[in-house]
Design a protein that fits this description.
This protein has 264 residues and is mainly β. Helix content is 10%, strand content 44%. It comes from Pseudomonas graminis.
């Protein structure tokens, strides 16, 4: 019997069990139990900032995916399922929350793997007209042994059920000339890309972005790419630096602010 004929004969069992039988499709959907264990994500940001929806990744050891190594040999890895979860306001416009199921259920028995979110300027018009958003602070929390959905450096391993992250950020106004003049306003923080935590036991994640709006760092990129020319940074104390650095010196920003606050 042909493969097509077999699929027709087992159509009803295929629909009922949603299993892969001689080419019939497998159901990769999630079906978490309403009473299942959850991870609470709580995020606090000032009014000037906003939070992206959570990018949540679940993985499955049952529904594997096949990739190939450098020699072309097939290699089985855990399957993945990504969803976006919108955060809700809780009595305060600067406070966001979401609950994530640890077990995503379904025939694949999905398990929570990692979550990613970013904070950035809601409307960066305080820095002038036609100023675009230049990105901001990103956070990744990993709940299992797998790599996160984005590769990062500086992984921090944390134990315990509670993960609390409170970080300082500074306004960063960027002038660039790649493909024409563009001005953007973003955030300068401790991490060059994403703050990344491995917190397998965490069931409560709290993140707070502390924005120091009065301490602005600006940068100007060279109009043309030439050897020996670098981005110029101007710091709140008036100092100007131009070296191989592609992002503001966060340690310097902290020192400038703390010194100014100590003299008040």
């Amino acid at each position: 019997m042909s493969r097509e004929g077999l699929c027709l004969k087992v159509l009803l069992p295929c629909v009922a069990t949603v299993l892969s039988i001689s080419g019939c499709a497998k159901d990769y959907s999630m079906a978490p139990s309403p009473s299942g264990e959850q991870v609470k994500i709580a995020i606090k940001v000032p009014e000037e900032l906003e939070v992206t929806p959570l990018r949540v990744m679940y993985r499955s050891a049952i529904c594997e995916r096949v990739t190939h190594d450098g020699d072309g040999r097939p290699e089985k890895l855990e399957g993945y399922n990504s969803i976006d979860v919108k955060l809700s306001h809780q009595n305060n416009e600067s406070f966001y929350e979401a609950d994530l199921f640890v077990s995503g259920g379904g025939l694949c028995e999905w398990r929570l793997s990692n979550v990613l979110f970013e904070v950035s300027y809601r409307v960066p018009n305080r820095f002038g007209e036609n100023v675009g958003s230049g990105g901001g602070g990103g956070v990744i929390v990993i709940f299992d042994h797998n790599d996160p959905q984005l590769r990062t450096s500086g992984l921090m391993k944390v134990k315990g059920a509670d993960l609390t992250i409170i970080k300082d950020y500074y306004p960063w106004v960027k002038d660039s000339y790649s493909g024409g003049y563009i001005k953007r306003a973003g955030l300068a923080g401790e991490a060059r890309s994403y703050l990344t935590y491995e917190a397998r036991e965490a069931r409560s994640v709290y993140f707070e972005a502390v924005l120091h709006s009065d301490y602005v760092v600006s940068s100007t990129a060279p109009k043309k790419h030439k050897v020996g020319e670098f981005i110029t940074f101007k710091y709140p104390d008036g100092t100007v630096e131009s070296d191989r650095r592609s992002e503001p010196n966060f340690k310097k920003m902290q020192e400038i602010r703390l010194a100014a606050e100590a003299n008040k």
